[in-house]
Design a protein that fits this description.
Elements lengths: L1 H20 L12 E3 L3 E7 L5 E6 L4 E6 L5 E7 L4 E9 L4 E17 L1 H4 L2 H4 L3 H6 L3 E9 L13 E6 L1 H4 L4 H14 L3 E5 L13 H6 L1 H6 L15 H7 L9 E5 L11 H16 L5 E4 L11 H11 L6 E4 L15 H16 L11 E8 L2 E7 L5 E2 L7 E4 L5 E3 L1 E5 L2 E5 L8 E4 L9 E2 L9 E2 L2
Parallel strand pairs: 1-7, 7-10, 7-11, 8-10, 11-12, 12-13
Antiparallel strand pairs: 2-5, 3-4, 3-6, 6-7, 8-9, 14-15, 15-20, 16-22, 17-18, 17-21, 19-20, 21-23
Helix pairs in contact: 6-12
Length: 459
C-alpha cells in the first residue's frame, strides 16, 4: 500500500513539473490582438528554468530565440512592419507550442479612467441602436481588462481580444470605439484598443505607489476621497492590477476620461494628475501622447468643486505631449454621463490625427486662455486657438473680473480682433479674470472650428 501511495505521489509530482515547464504567455497576447506598427515591441512570458524559447513572426518568417532567466521569465524585442495583417506568431518551448492567430499590425491605444470612458452603447448613448447595428469594423480590435484590485504590482491581468462587431462593440467603451472609427476612417489602418476603465474611480487608484511615497501632500489628499459602493478608493490599487501588467506592451498613446470623482479634492488634482501621467510614461519608458477629456459641467452640490477640476485639467496641458478636449457644449448639467459620446471620440481622434499622426491641418482645439493685458480699466483677454472667436447666441455673459481685493464681479465682454475685451463698472483696476467659473456653467465662447473655450481663472 505504501509503495502504491509513493508511486501516485511521484506521478503527481512529475505531472506538476511538466505543467510548470510549459511556455505561458500573459493574457494580453491572444488571438485577434493588435501590435504597434513600425516599432520594436516586447513579447514576454514564462517557461522552465534555463529553457530556450523561440518566436517566429509571420510577417517576415524571422525566428527570435531567448533563454529564460532564473525567475523563469523571458522576453524578446521584435520588430514590427507597417500596418497590415492578419499574421500568425508561433512561440515554441520545450514542451509546447503556442500559435497566436489573426494578429494585426497597427495603432494601439489604452482607454482609461472612470465611468464616462467605460460607458458603452448599451449604457445609453445617442442613436445607440443605429451605432450598434453598423459597428462592423474587423480591423478594429478590443481588449477588455477584467476589473481586479491588488495591493501589489501584478505581472498579468485578465482579459481577451475581440473583433469589432455589433455584439462586441455594444459593451465596449463608446468613446474608445468612436475614436478608433475616426482614426481608421482617416488613416485606413488597424486600431487596437485596451480598455481598463472603472466607473466612479479617483485618479489616486490609477497612480503608482511610488508617487505617494515621494509626495506626502498627495498621500494626505488621497484620504479625502470618500468610500463608495461602485469602486475602490485605496491609492494604487487599480494601477497595480490593471495597468502595471501591460507596461511592457507597446502602445501609441493613452486616452483618459476621469475627474468627476476628484471633485472631493480638486485642489490637489493638478499635482496628482500630472504626476500620474509622468509616472505612467516612466513605467512604459517613453513619452507617449496622453489625450484626455475635460469633465463636463455638472451640479456636484458643492459650489466650485467641479470647475476647479476642469481648471486643473486645463493647467495640466503644461505637461508635454498632452491634449485636452472640452465637452461643455455637448452635455446637460443634470446628467454626469453625457450621451453624446460620438463627438467626444471624434475630438480625441482629431487631436491624435493632427498632433501625433500629422494628417490634419485644421483647428482641433477650442480657445484656451493664454494671457491678459490691462488698458484703460479694461482687460484684453488673449486665447490660443482664437481664430474666429464668437459668442454663441450673442450672449456676452460668463466673464468676471476682480481687483486687488480678489472679489469677482460680473463683467461685460465683446470681441475685437479675436481678443475678448472685458470690463466691469465695479472693478476700476482689474487684476484677475475668470470665465465660465461654475460647476454648471455651459460654454458660450467658440472659435471658427465650432469648438468651445475651456473655463479658466487667471490666478
Amino acid at each position: 500500500m505504501k509503495l502504491k501511495k509513493i508511486a501516485v505521489l511521484l506521478l503527481l509530482l512529475c505531472t506538476c513539473t511538466v505543467l510548470s515547464a510549459k511556455v505561458v504567455l500573459p493574457n494580453i497576447f491572444k488571438d485577434h490582438m493588435v501590435l504597434q506598427r513600425n516599432s520594436e515591441v516586447t513579447i514576454w512570458g514564462w517557461g522552465d528554468l534555463n529553457e530556450e524559447i523561440s518566436v517566429i513572426t509571420g510577417w517576415n518568417e524571422k525566428e527570435y530565440k531567448v533563454k529564460t532567466a532564473l525567475t523563469t521569465q523571458w522576453q524578446l524585442k521584435i520588430d514590427t512592419p507597417e500596418a497590415g495583417g492578419p499574421f500568425e506568431i508561433i512561440i515554441n518551448g520545450k514542451l509546447n507550442q503556442i500559435v497566436l492567430k489573426d494578429i494585426l499590425i497597427g495603432e494601439v491605444w489604452v482607454c482609461s479612467g472612470q465611468s464616462n470612458m467605460e460607458w458603452s452603447a448599451n449604457s445609453g448613448i445617442d442613436n445607440a441602436a443605429t451605432e450598434i447595428e453598423k459597428a462592423n469594423y474587423p480591423n478594429i480590435r478590443f481588449f477588455n481588462v477584467t476589473k481586479r484590485t491588488s495591493e501589489t504590482e501584478q505581472d498579468d491581468l485578465e482579459g481577451s481580444w475581440s473583433v469589432c462587431a455589433p455584439e462586441t462593440m455594444k459593451d465596449f467603451s463608446a468613446v474608445g470605439y468612436f475614436f478608433a472609427r475616426r482614426l481608421q476612417g482617416e488613416m485606413g489602418i488597424p486600431v487596437g484598443l485596451i480598455d481598463n476603465s472603472w466607473g466612479a474611480t479617483s485618479a489616486e487608484v490609477w497612480t503608482p505607489k511610488a508617487v505617494f511615497e515621494k509626495n506626502s501632500y498627495l498621500k494626505q489628499q488621497a484620504k479625502k476621497i470618500e468610500e463608495n459602493i461602485w469602486a475602490p478608493v485605496q491609492p494604487s490599487i487599480l494601477y497595480n492590477a490593471m495597468v502595471h501588467p501591460i507596461v511592457n506592451f507597446k502602445i501609441a498613446g493613452v486616452l483618459w476620461y476621469q475627474g468627476e470623482s476628484n471633485a472631493a479634492n480638486p485642489e490637489s488634482y493638478l499635482e496628482l494628475f500630472t504626476a500620474m501621467i509622468t509616472s505612467w510614461r516612466e513605467e512604459w519608458g517613453y513619452e507617449f501622447p496622453f489625450y484626455y477629456v475635460q469633465i463636463a459641467p455638472y451640479n456636484y452640490g458643492t459650489v466650485g468643486k467641479g470647475v476647479k477640476v476642469r481648471d486643473a485639467q486645463r493647467r495640466a496641458l503644461k505637461v508635454t505631449n498632452t491634449g485636452m478636449v472640452v465637452v461643455s457644449d455637448i452635455c446637460t448639467t443634470d446628467d454626469i454621463h453625457p450621451t453624446n459620446k460620438q463627438d467626444v471620440g471624434l475630438r480625441l481622434a482629431n487631436l491624435a490625427l493632427k498632433d501625433q499622426y500629422r494628417v490634419l491641418d485644421n483647428i482641433v482645439n477650442g480657445p484656451l486662455f493664454k494671457e491678459f493685458k490691462i488698458s484703460d480699466k479694461k482687460m484684453k483677454v488673449i486665447f490660443e486657438n482664437s481664430d474666429g472667436l464668437y459668442f454663441k447666441d450673442k450672449k456676452l455673459e460668463n466673464f468676471e473680473l476682480a481687483g486687488d481685493d480678489g472679489q469677482f464681479h460680473p463683467a461685460k465682454a465683446h470681441i475685437i480682433n479675436d481678443m475678448v475685451i472685458v470690463s466691469s463698472k465695479k472693478v476700476n483696476d482689474p487684476k484677475k479674470v475668470r470665465y465660465a467659473w461654475g460647476n454648471t456653467t455651459l460654454a458660450n465662447l467658440f472659435n471658427s472650428a465650432g469648438l468651445p473655450a475651456s473655463s479658466f481663472i487667471s490666478d
